[in-house]
Design brief:
The complex is a heterodimer of chains A (465) and B (340).
Chain A lengths: L1 H10 L2 H14 L8 H23 L13 H5 L4 H28 L12 H33 L12 H35 L6 H14 L15 H29 L8 H24 L1 H7 L3 H31 L5 H28 L13 H31 L50
Helix pairs in contact in A: 2-5, 2-12, 3-5, 5-6, 6-7, 6-8, 7-8, 7-9, 7-10, 7-12, 8-9, 9-10, 10-12, 10-13, 12-13, 13-14
Chain B lengths: L13 H34 L16 H30 L6 E8 L2 E6 L4 E3 L1 E5 L3 E8 L4 E5 L4 E5 L5 E6 L4 E7 L12 E6 L1 H9 L7 H11 L24 E3 L5 E3 L2 H9 L22 H13 L16 H5 L13
Parallel strand pairs in B: 1-5, 4-10
Antiparallel strand pairs in B: 1-2, 2-3, 5-8, 6-7, 6-9, 9-10, 11-12
Helix pairs in contact in B: 1-2, 4-6, 5-6
Classes of the chains: A mainly alpha (465), B alpha+beta (340).
The structure holds copper (II) ion (2 copies).
């Protein structure tokens, strides 16, 4: 249940819905998204999906994990799979609509002079994310529909007793759910690209490499799903291909990390809280991504598949990556969105706590996983005790780290200082308008003459080119 | 409480060393790059920290050479991991010829194990050290996954098909056996132990205890009880094909296709006979779905296999003697008729 709620109702929509809806139009110099009403609709749909899932949770919860593996989910599990599945199905439409809206907006609503290669990297990241949303989400929607059909009508799709194939479900599920990881991480990468530039007061190193690596991740990410099936008895040769492509998808991610690092070189670096979150992101994402290589290596995956090693890996990516990005973005744009400043000291402190708590929670799980602790074990042999105790202690620290921002953000709404248009000294359309922005964003449509984050006038540029 | 606190799993199979070697390689690369990135960021952040409020960074737009370097070097490193990992995978996947076979059936929430000599165990698996062991595994209900961390082996156990897994234990001892695929509320209780024994102890264990019929003998009995033998008559053509020498050979189908008779095919022939009709026969065989349990299916398969020269696995005693003649007083089989 924790998985269903976190993945489908928090991690996937968090950045696109909160930051994306707000920033995509502003950053390209538009008054609003292309379809404001559809945007509202997608919010209602999301709430409706949430209600079904909440119902499933309150009335006992689903015990299938977020992966809903068949035939357990269709034949054996007697919990509220149906309403949870319906919840996921409905929320899917919200994703599709959001993706559609972003794509159309980015194509059609750019201000004069806002060419593709002047777009902020946040926009490129959202463009790539939207592609995955509209191409991948229908597949998961159909898949949960099939699960529902098998449960309710006993159509034999996945259950071998009815003539179905249980592994087919895993193919369909991961065809969406692997790219879904990129739905969570790509927007965060977009946020990090913005923050790294703003707090180094420097344009990005390798703009087009970062932009295209987002697209590469979106496209290649659709062809790696089989790395979740190395021990499910899929053909060895299929396994080979999926392993190969999984290694390939690591390259664009590596390119991003290297370019972010190079951006800081010769910058004017200030360690405000968004930048601390960005550093946290880069650190955790690097560990998460590199341990992904361990899992993509077929010979090792046989041992670590479905152990805590995997749990640690995807929390480094999804929680360490996506949530650090989300928090970094919130801290960066909070003054813009609300017009209020929050406590700088507390926010730095909480960034530190989150980083420490996170590592304490999830690092021991790599070790437990390699020793062989399977995931979804609530009872375990004594040799895993110490590591699990460490993990639980870390989780408490992490929780504190998440609660502190909640408090000072709330406080800033009531009593925070008023924010100027551009409190960080950044460059970008969103920083040229008042905080918070007026309903129409821009009173006069802006005319764009250069890319974002140009801190040095072209005539004064000296750097190593 | 803190005395039993390992940071690394035991190595107790021939595969364990292989898996650990490549694991260390990948982890070393992981650590190396993580440290480089963290070091560079810390260094740059300190060296280029903002000194006054209006300061801005130097405009540097990129460097093609660097981009190429940091794409190509990681690419070759990952290809090294890929190739090595694939090699280890193939070794883990392909059981050596002559591996001793054991049947495993997973069900919520226990492991049922049948040795070819007739020993049965639940949530325990006794194996000799120094001999490759191949497990043939099926499930009675949902997907489970058979996992022995100390051996670094794991395979999903999926209803409706057989997955195999092999290992060769190197050190006598008792090791964890886990179910690694979520299978319901008591998933974390679906554990057991693997006991690796010196061959002599293993022989002693085999001869003691409660040996029931070997799977072959039990299968033969089922073959009569379920009146399979009314259609599949030994040695002569009845209403159904002769099963002698079927296993491991190619079967020609009604629709012109061909299929190799392996465990999965025989299983399908019994639970879903209409799926593939043998050329020259009528689709009159009734389905036995629901009439036989997964374990009985494995016994029937063992019996059909024993009728074929290629299907006889070496006995656990280590000699190449076929399993079949040991415990059943089966008449000598005629060879399979040519033309099939
Ligand atoms: Cu994946
Ligand atoms: Cu299980």
């Amino acid at each position: 249940m924790h998985g269903v709620v976190m993945v489908f109702f928090f991690l996937i929509p968090s950045i696109p819905a909160v930051l994306g809806n707000f920033l995509v139009p502003i950053m390209i110099g538009a008054k609003d998204l292309a379809f404001p009403r559809i945007n509202l609709l997608s919010w209602y749909i999301y709430v409706l999906g949430g209600v079904f899932t909440l119902f499933a949770a309150l009335s006992g919860g689903v015990d299938t994990g977020w992966t809903f593996y068949t035939p357990y989910s269709t034949a054996a599990s007697n919990s509220h799979v149906m309403s949870a599945a319906l919840g996921v199905f409905i929320t899917g439409f919200s994703s599709i609509l959001t993706g559609l809206n972003f794509i159309v907006t980015i194509h059609r609503m750019r201000a004069p002079g806002m060419t593709w290669f002047r777009l902020p990297l946040f926009i490129w990241a959202h463009y790539a994310t939207s592609l995955i949303m509209i191409l991948g989400t229908p597949v998961i929607a159909i898949t949960v529909l099939m699960v529902a059909a098998e449960r309710a009508l006993h159509l034999g799709i996945f259950d071998p007793a009815l003539g179905g194939d249980p592994v087919l479900f895993q193919h369909l599920f991961w065809f969406y759910s692997h790219p879904a990881v990129y739905i969570m991480i790509l927007p965060a990468m977009g946020v990090i690209s913005e923050i790294v530039q703003a707090f180094s007061r420097k344009n990005i190193f390798g703009y087009s490499f970062i932009a295209f690596s987002s697209l590469a991740i979106a496209v290649i990410g659709f062809f790696v799903w089989g790395h979740h099936l190395f021990v499910a008895g899929q053909s060895v040769y299929a396994g080979l291909i999926f392993s190969f492509i999984s290694f390939l998808v690591a390259i664009p991610s590596a390119i991003k990390v290297f370019n972010w690092t190079a951006t800081i070189y010769k910058g004017s670096v200030s360690l405000d809280s968004p930048m601390l979150y960005a550093f946290g992101f880069i650190g955790l994402f690097t560990i998460g991504g590199l341990t992904g290589l361990v899992l993509a290596t077929m010979g090792i995956d046989i041992h670590v598949h479905d152990t805590y090693f995997v749990v640690a890996h995807f929390h480094y990516i999804m929680v360490g990556g996506a949530i650090m990005g989300y928090l970094g973005g919130l801290h960066y744009w909070w003054p813009k969105m609300t017009g209020k400043l929050y406590s700088e000291a507390w926010s730095k402190f909480s960034a530190l706590i989150v980083f420490v708590g996170f590592n304490l929670t999830f690092f021991p799980q790599f070790i437990a996983g390699y020793i062989g602790m399977p995931r979804r074990y609530h009872a375990y042999p004594p040799e895993f005790q110490v590591l699990n105790v460490l993990s639980s202690a870390g989780a408490s620290i992490l929780a504190v780290g998440y609660i502190i921002p909640l408090i000072y953000f709330m406080y800033s709404l009531v009593a925070g200082e008023k924010a100027a248009n551009d409190p960080w000294g950044s460059r970008g359309l969103e920083w040229e308008i008042p905080s918070p922005p007026p309903t129409e964003n821009f009173t006069v449509t802006p005319v764009v003459t250069e890319g974002t984050h140009q801190y040095v006038h072209p005539s004064q540029e000296v750097g190593v080119a | 409480m803190f005395t039993n606190f390992p940071l690394f799993p035991q190595q107790a199979s021939v595969q364990a060393g292989q898996v650990d070697a490549i694991y260390f390689f990948v982890v070393a690369i992981t650590a190396f790059f993580s440290l480089i990135i963290a070091g560079a960021i810390a260094f740059f952040a300190a060296k280029y920290r903002r000194r006054h409020d209006a300061e801005v960074g130097v405009a540097i737009h990129g460097s093609l050479i660097l981009e190429i370097l940091w794409s190509v070097i990681p690419f070759f490193l990952t290809m090294g991991m890929f190739a090595w990992g694939a090699k280890v995978f193939f070794d883990l996947y392909r059981p050596p010829a002559g591996a001793m076979e054991i049947f495993v059936v997973g069900k919520q929430w226990m492991w049922k194990i049948q040795h070819m000599d007739g020993q049965r165990e639940i949530n325990e698996l006794h194996v000799p050290v120094g001999r490759p062991v191949k497990l043939i595994m099926g499930s009675e209900d949902v997907i489970h996954s058979f996992y022995i961390p100390a051996f670094r082996v794991k395979a999903d156990v999926i209803p409706g098909r057989y997955n195999t897994l092999w290992f060769e234990a190197t050190k006598p001892g008792t090791y964890h056996l886990f179910c690694a695929e979520y299978c319901g509320t008591k998933h974390s209780g679906m554990t057991g132990r693997v006991v690796a024994m010196d061959p002599a102890d293993y022989q002693a264990w085999l001869s003691g205890g409660s040996a029931s019929d070997s799977p072959v003998a039990a299968g033969e009995k089922l073959f009569q009880d379920l009146v399979c033998n009314t259609c599949h008559i030994q040695g002569s053509q009845g209403r159904g094909p002769v099963l002698t020498n079927l296993f491991g050979n190619t079967v020609e189908l009604q629709d012109g296709g061909r299929v190799t008779a392996d465990e999965a095919y025989i299983r399908e022939s019994i639970v879903n006979p209409q799926a593939k009709i043998v050329a020259g026969f009528q689709p009159i065989m009734p389905t036995f779905q629901g009439l036989v349990t997964e374990e009985q299916l494995l016994q029937l398969i063992a019996y059909v296999r024993s009728l074929s020269a290629q299907g006889t696995a070496p006995s656990p005693a280590g000699t190449a003697a076929p399993t079949m003649p040991q415990k059943s007083d089966q008449p000598v089989q005629e060879p399979r008729k040519p033309g099939r």
